[in-house]
Write a structure and sequence with these properties.
Belongs to the ABC transporter superfamily. With 254 residues, the protein is an alpha/beta fold. The chain has a single domain (28-56, 70-248), classed as Rossmann fold (3-Layer(aba) Sandwich), CATH 3.40.50.300. Helices cover 39% and strands 24% of the residues. It contains 9 helices and 9 strands. It has helices at residues 43-50, 73-83, 99-110, 114-127, 143-155, 173-190, 201-204, 228-242, 247-250, and strands at 2-11, 17-27, 32-36, 58-63, 84-88, 161-165, 193-197, 209-214, 217-223. It has a 6-stranded mixed β-sheet, with helices on both faces. A 3-stranded antiparallel β-sheet has the order 2-1-4, covered by helices on one side. Strand 6 (161-165), helix 6 and strand 7 form a beta-alpha-beta unit. The longest helix has 18 residues, at 173-190. The chain is globular and about 50 Å long. It starts with a strand and ends with a helix. The chain binds adenosine-5'-triphosphate and magnesium ion (MG). The site of magnesium ion has 2 residues, from helix 1.
Length: 254
């Protein structure tokens, strides 16, 4: 459902910087893929290109048979609304709105009928265990709850591809595992494809496949087998093999 062909990114500036080189990547419908690599290796750049927030310098991105970077502004906005969902490390919620208002925001922009919105919100809030906090403001809830609200907002459109940049980066170990379990549940129930950048081997071990990038190039990939614990160990081993800046292992939880 997602295909990257020889995607490269050069940031122009006083000194041009090559952030990605010839990335080939294919993700199937319903697949959950994690991207790992040292700080500065190009993970966010890659995610920004897939999310169409940035354009590749060369190469091609295809999502569900469409080439979003070739679409005109309005068609692209519609494509993003219909096909993509986004989750960020800092949740990106609107602090002047309640939890419920944050979740329905994408639908109100769409002009969906109020009754239909209520039904959708109710269903998704229940599945994420946040029904009791719907009237609260975003500063009255915990980090783990905030990330679940962000997931609800990202899922309210039933996107085909969910993109997450360090979704557990600001969460403690318990909240992080809760969020990962919910992402897996969504991935399995809705067949939503998932592409997640993370430094956290524990979070990555919930995926079907981890792709490692270093210096803007694909370095390696490993698939999950039967056991998540064994997968976790393989991820740790790969991280230490590829080295990095130390930052990667500081966030490892065992
Ligand atoms: N807008 C930009 N202009 C110029 N260079 C940039 C820009 N954004 C990122 N870079 C550079 O591109 C490289 C990759 O950055 P990127 O943000 O993709 O790394 P990352 O793997 O997400 O790192 P981290 O784990 O720290 O989030 C870095 O060397 C960064 O300095
Ligand atoms: Mg990043």
């Amino acid at each position: 459902m997602l295909k990257l062909t020889k995607v490269s990114k050069i940031y122009e500036g006083k000194v041009a910087y090559r952030a990605l080189t010839d990335i080939d990547l294919e993700i199937e419908k319903g697949e959950f893929v994690a991207i790992m690599g040292p700080s500065g290796s190009g993970k966010t750049t890659l995610l920004n290109i897939v999310s169409t927030n940035d354009t590749p310098t060369t190469g091609e991105v295809t999502i569900e048979g469409e080439k979003p970077h070739k679409l005109k502004k309005n068609a692209l906005a519609k494509f993003r609304r219909n096909e993509l969902g986004f989750i960020f490390q800092d949740f990106n919620l609107m602090h002047t709105l309640t939890v419920e208002e944050n979740i329905v925001l994408p639908l109100t922009l769409d002009g969906t009928r109020v009754r239909e919105m209520k039904e959708k919100v109710h269903k998704i809030a229940k599945s994420l265990g946040i029904s009791t906090i719907m009237k609260k403001r975003t500063y009255e809830i915990s980090g783990g709850q905030a990330q679940r609200v962000a997931i609800a907002r990202a899922m309210i459109h039933d996107p085909k591809l969910l993109l997450a940049d360090e979704p557990t980066g600001n969460l403690d170990s318990k909240a992080s595992n809760d969020v990962m379990k919910m992402l897996v549940a969504i991935n399995e129930a809705e067949k939503t494809s998932l592409l997640m950048v993370t430094h956290d081997a524990q979070a990555a071990s919930y995926s079907d496949r981890v792709i490692f990038i270093r210096d803007g190039k694909l370095y390696s990939e490993i698939h999950r087998g039967e056991s998540r614990q064994a997968f976790f160990q393989k991820i740790i081993d790969m991280l230490s093999l590829m080295g990095g800046d130390g930052n990667d292992l500081s966030s490892v939880r065992v």
